[in-house]
Design goal:
alpha+beta; Rossmann fold; 2 domains; six-stranded mixed β-sheet; 15 strands; 29% strand; disordered N terminus
Length: 286
């Protein structure tokens, strides 16, 4: 387990918080799933053997195949903590939705690790303008994707459903676009997201459908409540198979992250119409 063989399918993954991952398919049957993860997230294929002396803050996600396993045993740390690795056992089902479920599971393991360093997985689109990133948060069906598609240049939509927020080495918040995994349901072709492209977060906007476009600043308390809903929607599957003690620790950790984020990043309500130039309202407060 201390090194990965050259014939394995492996990808490198780096985040703005300084963490690095090496993702490896340890069984032939999971190679298509890991390969699809690498393509969707635009990860760089790894080559060569990882020497123990060169690992530093590198973590390994080792993906194996298994059947008839309980939810509690689907993501287990290796026996030795010095290996700095996580083994994930997938059920590579041929049933409808099997690929989607496995892609979500792998991505949630990566996202959950960022929470221990102050990160959050947010149910919100990520957009960029002049190097500034903003999150458009809203429940499903509220208009995140539509709003993202309406943004004109120089705005750019980086993701239209989910965003991974991390804290860099200086304590600043950066956002990574995250895949819309539902596009892999029912045999759909999916998509590609440059998850390693991080932008500084300059604001979060909670979308509300309205007749006219308008931005309203909100305080940290209201921001925590609204952001908590968005994070819960994106992270709900992280709770599967957890004992009560682990769930309590995870929820407290997440709540602390929410409070810190709300103190630092400006939050607004964004009332958005079907035809207006809502981005101009965002530009005024940015």
């Amino acid at each position: 387990m201390n090194s990965l063989q050259s014939q394995e399918v492996r990808y490198n993954f780096a985040l703005a918080d300084g963490s690095r991952w090496n993702i490896a398919a340890k069984d032939d049957v999971v190679i298509p799933i890991v390969s699809q993860l690498g393509r969707a997230m635009r990860l760089r294929a790894a080559s060569g053997i990882i020497e123990c002396s060169n690992r530093g803050n590198l973590r390994e996600l080792l993906v194996r195949a298994g059947t008839c396993i309980s939810a509690a045993n689907r993501s287990l740390p290796l026996a030795s903590e010095n290996d700095n690795a996580v083994v994930c056992i997938l059920s590579p089902s041929n049933l409808q939705g099997g690929l989607y479920a496995n892609l979500v599971k792998l991505s949630l393991i990566l996202a959950q690790e960022t929470q221990t360093r102050g990160g959050l997985l947010v149910h919100g689109a990520l957009a960029e303008r002049d190097g500034m990133g903003v999150i458009l948060a809203a429940p499903g069906g509220t208009g995140k994707t539509t709003a993202s598609n309406r943004l004109p240049a120089p705005w750019r939509s980086l993701s239209d459903d989910t965003t991974l927020v991390v804290r860099d080495l200086h304590g600043n918040y950066c956002a990574h676009p995250w895949p819309t995994w539902s596009r892999f349901l029912n045999g759909e072709t999916g998509g590609v997201w440059n998850v390693q492209k991080a932008v500084p977060v300059k604001g979060i906007f909670f979308l509300i459908q309205a007749a006219n476009d308008q931005v309203e600043a909100i305080g940290p308390g209201q921001a925590v409540c609204l952001l908590g809903e968005s994070v819960e929607q994106a992270s709900a599957f992280m709770n599967l198979g957890k004992c009560k003690e682990n769930l309590r620790t995870q929820h407290l950790e997440r709540f602390n992250n929410l409070c810190t984020f709300a103190k630092i990043v400006p939050a607004h309500l964004l009332r958005i119409s079907l035809t207006g130039s809502f981005w101009q309202e965002m530009e005024k407060v940015l």
